[in-house]
Amino acid sequence: MQVFDLGSTGTVSGLITAREAGLVACQRCGQVHRQDASYCKRCDGALQSRDTESLQKVWAWLIAGMIAYIPANVYPMLLTSTLVERSESTIIGGVWELIHHGSIGIAIIVFVASVMIPMGKFVAIIYLAVTVQQRSGAHQHGRHKAYEIVEFIGRWSMIDVFVVAILSALVQLNTIATINPGIAAVSFALSVIFTMLSAQSFDARLIWDADRTAG
Amino acid sequence: MKGGGPWPIYGLKRIYRASSKGQTLPLQHALPPLDDLVACPQCDTLHHAGNLPDNARAHCQRCGIVLMTSQPAAMARILSLALTAFIMMIAAVSFPFLTLDAGGLHNATSVIDAVLAFNEGLAIPLAIAVAFFIMVIPLIRLAALIYALGPLVREAPARPGARKAFGLAERLRPWSMAEIFIVGVTVALIKVAGLAAVTIGPAFWAFAGVVIITVLKDQLICRYSIWEALEQSAA
Ligand SMILES: [Zn+2]
Ligand SMILES: [Zn+2]
After folding, report:
1. How close B83 comes to chain A (CA, Å)?
2. Domain spans of chain A, in order of start
3. What is the mean pLDDT of residues B173-177?
4. Region for B121 from its dihedrals, namely left if φ exceeds 0, alpha if ψ lies in -120 to 50, beta otherwise
5. What are the extents of the domains in chain B?
6. CB interface of B with A, residues 102-161, below 8 Å
7. Is B74-234 a domain of CATH 3.30.1360?
8. Do A204 and B43 touch (CB under 8 A)?
9. Do B56 and B70 form a contact (C-beta atoms < 8 A)?
10. Band of the pLDDT at B119, cuts 50, 70, 90?
11. Which segments within B14-143 are labelled E, that is strand?
């Protein structure tokens, strides 16, 4: 496949944005309009040069996501009962169990998806929101990386919720062994949904605007 | 659309911008016609849009995301992949997905069973959410795409609401989590491996097929050209 890459990313100076040209662009289809247009003539989407309430929505969803993440770690994710015992395991407890059984690779997947990605995502969104709010020019590269992480990797935290769903459906063997979802599965799923909404509320154009105001 | 310059797509430089006493003035008369421009959805940088050669990709000059791709017969390929994925998805949710055997007991699980596992109290909203992420949203996306693109492939006028349907399919993209579900299944299999014998059913392979086809299909989608085609066929 032929790739057109004209100039290295983020360093091209002198490029002009639709806003600077006195125009408003549609984020869905890329069509450019005069500034007074309010609907896209091509895709019928609503036009907004910049979402001025973006950061407020980002913070609101982020805080909801962080609050939901607390019970997700405190309460059990899985309730297991076998002939000999009943046990409850939290997210971290589940990772320990996997390590004890020797499944190091899977333990790493679960740890990354359930602990590192959510935590990393909180940090990345806070970092983005704070540096964009301050219009700080010092963090351009870090900001672009943070946005990529938030945008493409965040959804993968949902793995643990699916694992719980499959285990609970599969392991229903009457008295021998049953697995049921714990309350943490609900709050973890909510946390992932809220942080996804937070990331989607971010108007990415503000990130690149902050780069250029810094010069 | 006319290509200009040595490249079919290039960023607009400040040449197009005039300033007097440090003030920037909107200079529409210096810009090419608005229909020849495309703005990056991520960073708002203006580019001159031209015709790409086959099998080419055009990236934003500023932030690097893909603005346009051009693959021969992309529309027809997207449609046939979407139809295949839709049929396989129906099979994937109805046939047994995994079968568990332990101590003489036997439990076959379909994707629908996995969803219904959350059937008490607070877990019900979670069941609904899981059902949406792994079945309902993927199916809605496929159906919307088939509805919107079907007539375009036959070069017939677009169906009413085709633009809404394509917009919906694009907006739902991050919420369709079939690929994450497949990784979750793998993790779950290893977790129960010591406890019981697990057999992988036909639906597992159908589901994995849907995931692969969806990735191929989404790579073929060039939003810019689809929106353009939808606009032209509606007029
Ligand atoms: Zn549009
Ligand atoms: Zn860009």
Report:
1. 24
2. 1-49, 54-209
3. 93
4. left
5. 9-70, 74-234
6. 102-103, 105, 107, 109, 113-118, 122-123, 125-126, 129-130, 133-134
7. no
8. yes
9. yes
10. low
11. 18-20, 23-25, 37-39, 46-48, 56-59, 66-70, 96-102, 105-110
* Cβ contact B61–A1 (<8 Å): no
DSSP-derived 3-state class of residue B22: coil
Q: What is the sign of the dihedral through the CA atoms of B212, B142, A25 and A58?
A: negative
Residue of B28, B31, B163 lying closest to A44 (CB–CB)? B163
- Residue A97: both structure tokens together: 């169990």
CA of B3 to the centre of ligand 1 (A): 21
Query: What are the tens digits of pLDDT across the range B49-106?
Result: 777 778 888 888 888 888 888 888 889 999 999 999 999 999 988 888 888 787 777 7
Interface predicted TM-score of the whole assembly (ipTM), two decimals: 0.84
Give the distance between the most distant pair of CA atoms in chain B: 86
Residues with CB under 5 A from ligand 2 (ion): B 40, 42-43, 45, 60, 62-63
Mean pLDDT across chain A: 85
CB-based contact B126 A5, cutoff 8 Å: no
What one-character DSSP code corresponds to residue B34? G
Q: In what order do the strands lie in the sheet with B96-102?
A: B105-110, B96-102, B197-200
The DSSP call for residue A17 is B
Of the bound ligands, which one is closest to the alpha carbon of residue B66? Answer: 2
- Gap between the Cα atoms of B181 and B162, Å rounded: 29
Confidence of residue A106 (pLDDT cuts 50, 70, 90): confident
Query: What b/e string do you get for B143-177 counting C-beta neighbours within 10 Å, with b at 16 or more?
Result: ebbbbbbbebbeeeebbeebbebbbbbbebeebbb
When scoring B9, B14, B62 by the number of chain A Cβ atoms within 10 A, the one with the most, hence best to mutate, is: B62
Q: Tokens 């990386």 label which residue?
A: A145
